[in-house]
Design brief:
Layout: E1 16-19, H1 20-28, H2 30-37, H3 50-69, H4 74-78, E2 85-86, H5 92-95, E3 103-107, E4 112-116, E5 120-124, E6 129-138, H6 160-175, E7 183-191, E8 211-219, H7 225-236, H8 260-268
Parallel strand pairs: 1-4, 6-7
Antiparallel strand pairs: 2-5, 3-4, 5-6, 7-8
Length: 272
């Protein structure tokens, strides 16, 4: 039987599939989520950043070597995590496939299938505790002294979504019976665009870009997830579009949803 995804159909017999990113979309703006999932209106999306995908792929290769050896990567040891190893599990590769909701759980109260795709999992063999790891790529600014890149942080309006992402992955793994630590890790590779010598290799048609690497620990809290899924379900069953978000947009997170005025105009002119 066909999977129930895309436009929500209450009469469909299969569980409706909701990704981690769609839950974030609902939290960003219930109106935009409703119009997309109930009415099938497609919004302009950001293009995929292939450089970010490349860094994720290369980082996974780095840790996969030590996943097979069941030893800590030297990077982990340098950061005081020599007691952990990259997690080796028969389903690990499936968990990384976001497009098929490779990491998933059936949420019985809503009847939805909730999922996504994670980057990595580290494991404490002594306690059998697992730690969710998320790779992030960026190119930061220099500090005030102009002698180094500014340290990465998890502060800022748009980084709230990063932390919710971590909450969601921990929650899904717990639903699948794993012993999940509240501590998760963001592994940042920060491209140094201020490198004085440029990046071209003079005698080859190749280039090198230097990245600084930082590991940020984060204490997650997934207590909000169940209630938010039920709010999302109620939104999908509404016959009338809910209001647009009044905040959460713009660099400081203090702006109204960017589509609010557009759809208000369409509604005033009988187009919705």
């Amino acid at each position: 039987m066909a999977r129930h995804r895309g436009t929500f159909k209450p009469e469909h017999p299969e569980p409706y599939e909701i990704s981690r990113s769609q839950i974030q979309s609902f939290m960003n703006c219930p109106a935009c989520f409703w119009m997309n999932r109930v009415k099938g209106i497609k919004f302009p999306g950001m293009p995929g950043f292939l450089l970010n995908t490349a860094t994720d792929t290369l980082l996974k290769k780095d840790f996969d070597k030590y996943r097979e050896l069941q030893k800590p990567h030297p990077f982990m040891e340098r950061h005081g995590l020599g007691h952990l190893v990259p997690y080796k599990h028969e389903d690990f590769e499936t968990w990384t496939k976001a497009l098929i909701l490779g990491l998933r759980t059936f949420h019985e109260p809503s009847g939805f299938l909730i999922g996504g795709g994670l980057d990595d999992v580290w494991h404490d063999p002594k306690t059998d505790e697992i730690f969710i790891v998320d790779y992030k790529s960026t190119a930061g600014k220099r500090n005030k002294e102009m002698d180094a890149l500014e340290p990465m942080s998890l502060f800022g309006a748009y980084k709230k979504a990063y932390k919710r992402q971590m909450d969601m992955y921990q929650w899904i793994m717990r639903q699948n019976g794993f012993n999940v630590s509240n501590t998760g890790y963001f592994l940042y590779v920060n491209g140094d665009q201020h490198f004085e010598d440029g990046m071209l290799i003079e005698d080859e048609d190749k280039a090198l870009m230097k990245f600084e690497v930082e590991l940020l620990a984060h204490e997650s809290d997934d207590s909000w997830v169940d209630n938010k899924i039920m709010e999302l379900k109620n939104c999908l069953h509404q016959e009338i579009c809910p209001p647009h978000a009044e905040s959460g947009f713009g660099p400081k997170g203090d702006k109204q949803c960017e589509y609010a005025s557009l759809f208000d105009g369409m509604r005033d002119n009988g187009l919705l």
